[in-house]
Design brief:
With about 140 residues, the protein is of the alpha+beta class. The protein is built from three helices and seven strands. The chain has helices at about 5-10, 60-70, 120-135; strands spanning about 5, 25, 35-40, 45-50, 80-85, 95-105, 110-115. The protein has a five-stranded mixed beta sheet with strand order 3-4-5-6-7, with helices on one face. A two-stranded antiparallel ribbon has the order 1-2. Helix 2 (about 60-70) runs parallel beside helix 3 (about 120-135). The N and C termini lie far apart (about 50 Å).
Length: about 140
């Protein structure tokens, strides 16, 4: 809602506290920062998207590359990878979700997981993708 004043915004977002005076008008309080990037990992195009003020760290980027490297043991023709990170600020538990899609010949494979910690979620996704590729 463009032109919303700070009191209206706090009614919609009660958990967030902003250091603004009453007179400040927010242009678009619902426009969350996103972090998207694309890289070529070897001959694989990797597209990573995140939302809700989440920045993909260098460590997480390396973890994505590690998952791809492991999946290449099971399927050699990975054409592209999409990874989506999402944070649900309104959920007290399982507030984080990550999805991982491999573009391979035939049907693509996809796995996702939700939780509170990215590291075990990425491991679960790795296991899920591996199981799908084992069935081929």
């Amino acid at each position: 809602m463009v032109g919303m004043n700070i009191h209206q915004w706090q009614m919609v977002n009660p958990a967030k506290v902003l250091p603004f005076s009453e007179e400040v008008v927010l242009d678009n309080p619902f426009n969350h920062t996103t972090m998207n990037y694309t890289e070529n990992f070897g001959d694989i195009k990797v597209d990573v998207q995140s939302s809700a003020d989440f920045t993909v760290t260098d460590g997480m980027q390396q973890r994505i590359r590690d998952v791809i490297t492991k999946m290449k043991r099971f399927v050699h023709d990975i054409n592209w990878v999409e990874v989506h990170f999402k944070v649900e600020e309104n959920h007290p538990t399982n507030s984080k979700t990550v999805g991982f899609k491999l573009g391979i010949p035939g049907n693509d494979v996809y796995a996702s997981d939700s939780g509170d910690n990215w590291v075990p979620m990425m491991k679960n996704i790795e296991d899920k993708l591996q199981k799908q590729l084992d069935k081929r």
